[in-house]
């Protein structure tokens, strides 16, 4: 048996915190009876409804997508632009992206209908590493790389420590490729970190999310996660900061 709020979160209807609010507000029924007590446990055969709508009992699915530039990290777009959901064909489950990649950023993006796992992966407390390759100009100095690693003051506060290394540089053309690993998820964070040091990001790609990388995928392609990969994500999502 599982806690009711966890089942609601896994269905993708709401986050676990929002699910708790729905329960307390008396908007959730189990087998036709209103349940308003947090911690209530339900079995797989129970019928659960939220605001009168029965939750569908979907199998949990997990996909890794190599998101191309020019695609929206959302289920729908009000301007009818292509979304990451459009790229994964033949999936009947109601999947959604875990976090987001900007319109002009490519790379590794996880999609699932496991709301509980998604919410934990996105919570900063669990410090899930995300590695990016940024093509920047001008070429950063050693001092600028050190500042990126130690933390940059942005308009929404100081960034956490990061792992930084220069991969290549082209002195003739004045640009470099820099690998940056962060565990935060602020809006356009990598671009803003470089901008704070008067550098422009010409190209940005997320090459790793937690233990997942893009090996074997081309832009626009996706693949289902293997059982051991899902298990590793659960491990990361339950690991508290030491």
Q: What report would you give on this structure?
A:
- With 242 residues, the protein is of the alpha+beta class.
- It folds into three domains: 2-54, Structural Genomics Hypothetical 15.5 Kd Protein In mrcA-pckA Intergenic Region, Chain A; 62-124 and 212-237, Alpha-Beta Plaits; 129-209, Alpha-L RNA-binding motif (Alpha-Beta Plaits), CATH 3.30.70.1560.
- It contains six helices and 17 strands.
- It has helices spanning 4-10, 16-24, 115-122, 142-150, 189-195, 227-237; strands at residues 2-3, 28-30, 33-34, 41-42, 48-50, 53-54, 62-67, 96-97, 106-112, 130-137, 153-154, 157-158, 163-170, 175-182, 200-209, 212-213, 222-224.
- The strands form four sheets. Strands 7, 8, 9, 10, 13, 14, 15, 16 and 17 form a nine-stranded mixed beta sheet that branches. Strands 3-2-5-6 form a four-stranded antiparallel beta sheet.
- A hairpin with a 2-residue loop joins strand 11 and strand 12.
- Helix 1 (4-10) packs across helix 2 and helix 1 (4-10) crosses helix 3.
- The chain is elongated.
Distance between the termini: 30 Å
Q: If helices are DSSP runs of H or I spanning 4 or more residues, what is the number of helices?
A: 6
The structural class is: alpha+beta
- The percentage helix is 10-25%
| Integer count of domains | 3
> What ranges have pLDDT less than 50 throughout 5 or more consecutive residues?
none
Oligomer: single chain
Shape: elongated
H-E order: EHHEEEEEEEEHEHEEEEHEEEH
Number of strands: 17
Main sheet overview: 9 strands, mixed
């Amino acid at each position: 048996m599982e806690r009711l709020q966890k089942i609601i979160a896994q269905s993708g209807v709401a986050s676990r915190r929002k699910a708790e609010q729905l329960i307390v507000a008396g908007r959730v029924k189990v087998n036709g009876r209103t349940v308003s007590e947090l911690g209530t446990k339900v079995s797989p055969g129970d019928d659960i409804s939220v605001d009168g709508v029965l939750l569908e009992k979907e199998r949990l699915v997990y996909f890794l997508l190599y998101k191309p530039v020019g695609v929206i990290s959302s289920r729908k777009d009000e301007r009818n632009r292509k979304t990451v959901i459009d790229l994964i064909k033949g999936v009947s489950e109601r999947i959604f992206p875990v976090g987001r990649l900007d319109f002009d950023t490519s790379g590794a993006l996880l999609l699932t209908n496991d709301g509980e796992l998604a919410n934990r992966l996105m919570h900063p407390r669990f410090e899930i590493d995300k590695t990016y390759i940024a093509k920047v100009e001008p070429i950063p100095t050693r001092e600028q790389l050190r500042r990126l690693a130690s933390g940059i003051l942005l308009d929404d506060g100081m960034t956490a420590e990061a792992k930084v290394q220069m991969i290549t540089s082209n002195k003739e053309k004045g640009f470099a490729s820099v690998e940056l690993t962060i565990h935060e998820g602020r809006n356009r964070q990598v671009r803003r970190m470089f901008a704070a040091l008067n550098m422009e990001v010409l190209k940005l790609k997320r090459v790793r999310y937690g233990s997942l990388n893009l090996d074997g995928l081309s832009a626009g392609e996706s693949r289902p996660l293997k059982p051991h990969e899902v298990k590793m994500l659960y491990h990361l999502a339950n690991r508290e900061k030491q």
